[in-house]
Amino acid sequence: MSDAFTKSEMMIVAAARQLAGRRVCFVGVGLPNIAVNLAARTVSPGLELVYEAGVFGARPARLPLSIGDPTIVTGATAAVSMVELFAFYLQGGLIDVGFLGGAQIDRYGNLNTTVIGPYDAPTTRLPGSGGACEIAINAGEIFVIMRQSRRSFVERLDFQTSPGNLAARHDSDGPMHRPGRGPSVVVTDLAVFRFDADGEMTVESLHPGVTADQLREAMAWEPRWGAAVGMTEPPSLEELRLIREELDPAGVSSR
Amino acid sequence: MSDKVASMHDAIAELVRDGDTVAIEGFTHLIGFAAGHEIIRQGRRELTLARLTPDVVYDQMIAAGVARKLVFSWLGNPGVGSLHGIRRRLEADADPAQRLEIEEYSHFGMVGRYTAGASKLPFYPLRSYVDSDLPRVNSRIRPISSPYGDETVYAVPPLNPDVTIVHAQRASAAGDTQVWGLVGCQKEAAFAADRVIVVVEELVDESVIRADPNRTLIPGLIVDVVVVEPWGAHPSYAQGHYDRDNAFYLEWDAISRDETRLQAWLGEWVHGVSGRAEYVAKLPPDRLEALTPGPAPSGEVDYGSYR
């Protein structure tokens, strides 16, 4: 098997490794789904997969094609109503990590999945929140996975669907409580970011072959660099084997 | 015991009226396509359509002109991309005569709205929307102070549909309805509604229901009509009966991008058939066969006999 890897495979592996030590994870479809399943077979055995469709402890036997694929039900620990899932599992504080993405993100990890352009007459109408807004607010921490470009890593969002890093909030003494701490990691096709104490996204590592200039080209603000920016550890042969042979053999999301 | 079984034609004719708020619920699972198509065939107008995920069924209904307003929380073709019929009626270049009104929440907000509606309460409080722009564009999402402390949380108003339509694996003729797999928010949406239509894969004897009361999602008490319509959720799925026809969801992306093609599809597959039986007969048999899952039966439990 080749040790050459795609950008998607690098994103999946980098995200999966961040799940070490986490117990309960709110999963989305696509890359997060593969990342979480990879983590369960590598760095985080016993990881519990939660799907907003109303499943706790999923054991999908195939790559789920949608957020409510029947394979997430068969063999799961529990199939519950959505109000129970959101009220007791998520709002009840049982979710360690939630995965989110978006069309736009800013330096504080605020996310837009609603519109490009004005809300009342958008140039592009996007899907909207789904469960993202409450996941962003209630999950212990948020991992963001998305491809980056000047159009997606923006200075100012067209619409703030899901709030970002709590440390960046300016009116943090207000009466509205946010139980989770917001985004802690952003994994893109170029780099891994974390957040500084003031809530700003900071480069932790560049993926193999990516230069600082390439990163700058792919975001609308001047990135803040961590103290010791290294190279993201490339995928191991075993990680690639699990992705290619077991988790996404058809290459739906990883190629 | 009352027999509520009726044809889909009669159920929609009797219970869905122009201007109604209609919820066809079922999260990815058990989506009532057969009912949606019958509403199109009967030419209902000015409906307010409510659903967490409008999905392909509302893309079809809205493109067919049955609705004036959409209440929702996630607008997409799940696992595929966009709902182009709806987008064409929302975006900046939409034809003003066709423009769709929207009222937008999050998933938790929508299930909370049905829960408040079913419970006959004036609102549902939840920890969401903090530092989000959603309350700015939807003034019905409002902050509320706790009567027991300093805290403020957001609230959403009840949603009480005129009609809720749910698809299920089985029901008795009296409307006692059992579902397994994802149960979404069908129970909440049904209890919140004034009228309830249940569409099932299989009609069963009352004794089947009574043998497993924990599996009953909706009691006949609140059901007006039972429609028996095998494959009535296609191209979505019914756990244990058939898989999602993912190829169709992918095809819909191409069909819905082009309004002419979309209308031609409605002409052939909705207006061009008398009902679900004819629609199913039109599908290639090997396509249906490929969607049939292998077995994974539940273990039996013993409720015990107490005399």
Descriptive key words:
heterodimer, A: 255 residues, alpha/beta, Glutaconate Coenzyme A-transferase, ten-stranded mixed β-sheet, two-stranded antiparallel sheet, 6 helices, 14 strands, 22% helix, 21% strand, B: 307 residues, nine-stranded mixed β-sheet, 12 helices
List the helices and strands and how they pair.
The complex is a heterodimer of chains A (255) and B (307).
Chain A lengths: L6 H11 L6 E4 L3 H11 L6 E4 L3 E2 L21 E2 L2 H9 L6 E4 L3 E2 L5 E2 L2 E2 L7 E2 L6 H7 L2 E5 L37 E5 L3 E5 L5 E6 L5 H6 L6 E8 L5 H11 L8
Parallel strand pairs in A: 1-2, 1-5, 5-10, 10-11, 13-14
Antiparallel strand pairs in A: 2-3, 3-4, 6-7, 8-9, 11-12, 12-13
Chain B lengths: L7 H8 L5 E4 L8 H9 L5 E4 L4 H9 L3 E6 L11 H5 L12 E4 L2 H13 L4 E3 L7 H4 L4 E4 L6 E5 L6 E9 L5 E2 L7 H7 L2 E9 L2 H5 L5 E3 L6 E4 L17 H12 L1 H13 L4 H7 L2 H6 L17
Parallel strand pairs in B: 1-2, 1-8, 2-3, 3-4, 8-10, 10-12
Antiparallel strand pairs in B: 5-7, 6-7, 8-9, 9-11
Helix pairs in contact in B: 1-2, 2-3, 5-7, 9-10
Task: Characterize the structure shown.
The complex is a heterodimer of chains A (255) and B (307). Chain A has 255 residues and is α/β, with parallel strands linked by helices. Chain A has helices spanning 7-17, 31-41, 82-90, 132-138, 212-217, 237-247; strands at 24-27, 48-51, 55-56, 78-79, 97-100, 104-105, 111-112, 115-116, 124-125, 141-145, 183-187, 191-195, 201-206, 224-231. Chain A has one domain (7-247): 3-Layer(aba) Sandwich (Glutaconate Coenzyme A-transferase), CATH 3.40.1080.10. Helix content of chain A is 22%, strand content 21%. In chain A, a hairpin with a 7-residue loop joins β8 (115-116) and β9. In chain A, α1 (7-17) crosses α2. Chain A starts with 6 loop residues before the first helix and ends in an 8-residue tail after the last helix. With 307 residues, chain B is an alpha/beta fold. Chain B has one domain: Glutaconate Coenzyme A-transferase, CATH 3.40.1080.10. Chain B is built from twelve helices and twelve strands. Chain B has helices spanning 8-15, 33-41, 55-63, 84-88, 107-119, 134-137, 186-192, 206-210, 246-257, 259-271, 276-282, 285-290, and strands at 21-24, 47-50, 67-72, 101-104, 124-126, 142-145, 152-156, 163-171, 177-178, 195-203, 216-218, 225-228. In chain B, α2 runs parallel beside α3 (55-63) and α9 (246-257) crosses α10. The model of chain B has no long low-confidence stretch (mean pLDDT 97).
